[in-house]
Every structure is written in structure tokens, then in C-alpha cells.
Amino acid sequence: MAQIEKFHVVVIGAGFAGIGAAIKLQQAGFTDIVVLEKANEIGGVWRANTYPGCACDVPSALYSFSFAPNPNWSRVFAPQAEIKDYIQDVAKKFDVEKYVRFGYEMIESAWDDQAKHWVVKTSRGDLHARFVIMAGGPMHEPVIPQIKGLDTFKGACFHSAEWQHDVDLSNKKVAVIGAGASAIQFVPAIQPKVQKLTLIQRTPQWVLPKMDQSLPKAAQLLFKALPITQRLTRYSVYGVFESLNSSMHHPKLIKQIERVAKLNIRLGVKDAALREKLIPNFTIGCKRVLQSNNWYPALAQSNVDVLRCGVQEVRGNTLIASDGSQHEVDAIIFGTGFEISNPPVAKQIRNKDGKTMDELWQGSAKGYLGTVVEGCPNAFVMFGPNIAVSSSALIIIEAQLAYILDTLQKAQAQQIETIEIRPDVLANYNDEVQTALKDTVWNTGGCSSYFIDANGRNSTLWPWTTFEMRSRLASCNLNDYQLSFQNQAAIKTAKKAS
């Protein structure tokens, strides 16, 4: 029988969060680590999503590690291929590819309370870990709605995150179901080539203009010659997004942003009846705020039909909308997003009592600082409950990694064997979060969004500024945790330290 491999830290996922974790672990001297990746290359969400028009909706200057600026971005908002190249280049530059194992999909991670380690079951066998970092990310489980008769459809049918590039959409009749962040990118990209595009959107989104443009060679040369100019660009972009995030607490500011979004509709769509279909009936910010310069012009084209309703049924190649209209289509593309408020990873993590987090949460995820969860010693979750913000994911990742590294270093210095969040600390923190979210537009804006879980609770968003996030996650307070030690001498050392 083969001996089970043991690691000090096992990282799940090789996207930005996983690669960032490997870099910071290595820099801190933790080299007994492994990064498990289910796919065959590094990239995470930027490896998986390859649909036409795929690009970032955060400017490149901010959508990159602060410690690894890239002066070569071709646009203000980088396209998908460049972002994937960037994360792969960063992994090479910091020499962490050696820790990544491809083709290792995590099936389940369960805490063994007797052995005091995690048993990580993968598609290629088990591993043991003293600590685990769940870095799978929030956007990798596509949502495909249950539609009566969908199995009778004979044409191509796929989600935007699983784009079938071998399907030629030229001169085809295409139905797009959903109008979220992916749809507003791929619809303008495919609209010119299809014969007919039928957009089925139950709820139109608020879409702001996208301040995008190509970056001239002069800008790239300046960033290389004077790196401080790129840092200053990053800080200014950070300030803009921080202001947008903070405005969600202030109704007067929200109204001003909404005016800009309405102007964007008026400029892109001249037809009054179509404009009426595209104006949302909720306050801007209640759902994720989107950006595009070509969404509205694409919808205004003669080969596009916009419906403001859902899908009732599919009969063969006929799609029947909930308004009773019937549409013959050759292909169906879902732009219906991902499982976020009910993350699939919750079914794969078993705590010390043998319960999955899904069983424990009962539809409402709860964590501490978005990074640790109940009953799971020595475990960290990237993009955990109530950590999302209207800014760059990289801001969250770097804040969380600072906290995780501080925790690991304290555990090593004080010979801590297990570290587990105290139930009272967790409960008090979640009460504080929900109180802070109560009057925000995310909770009161009158929409149904993925921020709100099945129980009507906002278990997704961080209610404060990212300055506050970085401050709270700057260091780990061991008093928040239940600790066990490797020996009696370590207990005495820890008492002196505290």
C-alpha cells in the first residue's frame, strides 16, 4: 500500500488566489506545500472563461498583484488571454510552478480530529495536510436554470463559461438566456455574425459606460522606465473603485450614478420601446454594476429581439417565452452566472464533527473575516462569506493572504498544533456584518441578486471599505481562536507572548 503524502500546507486551486498563496508561502519560508489544480494549466477563472469578448471589468492596473506590476497591458481593461498569460508569467517569475500538480481535483477535505490533520481526497488519491487553503474561487460552478423540455433541444446548448468554440454561430438563430456580466461582453461580440439574436432577460441590468481604450506604446515605455507612474495609476484607480463601493451606502450618490447609467441607455438606444425594456426596476448597485460601451448599441441592431421575461418551455427547437411568444432557434447560450451565495465547495468541506459546511450553514454561509469558518481548525477559505466588494479581487486576495501568513507564522513560532475560530467571536462578528449591511442598497435596492442567499440573508458582501478590510486582516489576533499546542512548553511560551 502506497504511503500517503503529507504536507504542511495544501492549497486548492491554481488561479490568482492559489498562485498568490504559493508565492507568499514560499517567501515566508513555507516550502512543504503543494497546489492542487483540477485542470491542466494555471489560470483559474481566466483559464475557464474563453467566450468571445471576455475581458476584465476592473482596470488592469488594479487587477494585478501589487508586488508584480505588468507594464505591458495592451488596454485599460485587459482581455482574458492577457490576464491568463499574466498569472502564468507571475508563477514562472516567482518560481512556484514547481508546487503545482495538475489533474488533481479535490473531491472532499475532511478534518481528522484524532490525527490533527486534513484528509484531502482528490481524483488521484488522498493527501494529508496540517493546514489547507481553499483557493478555488467563487466563479467556477456555472448556473444552468431548470427549463422544461430543454433536453428536447437539438441544437448547440452551452453556458458562457463552457463556450463551444467548434460551434459556428454564423447566420444562426441564437437565443441568449440571461443578461449578466458575461452576456454583456459576448452578445456584442457575436451579434454581427448571427442571423437573429433573441435576448431573454427577466431583469435588465444597470450598465455604466466602460472607460476602456488601448494603451499606447508610450504608456508602456513610461511604466517600464518609471515604475512609480504605474503605481500612481494603480492608486488612482483604487480610489475610484473605493468611491464607487462607498457610494452604495449613500442614496444621493447612488442617484447620481443612476443618472449616468440612464444616459448610457439613451445614447445607445434611440427606440423608446426598446429603452423601456432595458431600464431596470431596482436601484443601481442592488445587483453587480456592469460596464460596457457596446451592449446597448448591439441590442439596438435590427437582427436583435429583446424580451423582458423568462423562459417557460423548450419544445424541440422552439423556445417558448413566459410572455407566450415562440422563437425558433439553432443555439441556446446561457449567460446565467455562477453559484456564489451557495458555493459548491461547501459540500466538499467536512468539519471536525463530520458535517459538511453546506449542512452546517443551511443556505446561509457564515465565516470570520471571510477567511475562516466554524469547526474547521487549520483551514482558510479564500473569497469566503461576506468578503466580496465592488473592487478588484486582487485587493481581497492580498488582504486575506496577509492574514493567513500571519496566522501560520504565529502558529509556527508558538508551536500551535490547531487553531480554530471561537463560536462566540464568529457569532458576534456575523451580527456586526449583518447590522452594517442592513441599510445598504445591496439589501434594500429592490432586486433579487446573487448577493442574497436562499434565506434572504446577504452572505456575500463586505459592508465596509477595503481600507477597513486590509486593516482587519493585517494580523491575526490569537485571542479570537481556540488553540491547542504541540507540548506543555509551548503552552507556557504562548501565555508569556499573550
Automatic annotation (TrEMBL):
InterPro entries reported in the protein's UniProt record: FAD-bind_Monooxygenase_sf, FAD/NAD-bd_sf
EC number: 1.14.13.-
Swiss-Prot/TrEMBL keywords: Oxidoreductase
GO MF assignments: oxidoreductase activity
Name under which the protein is recorded: NAD(P)/FAD-dependent oxidoreductase
Organism, scientific name: Acinetobacter corruptisaponis
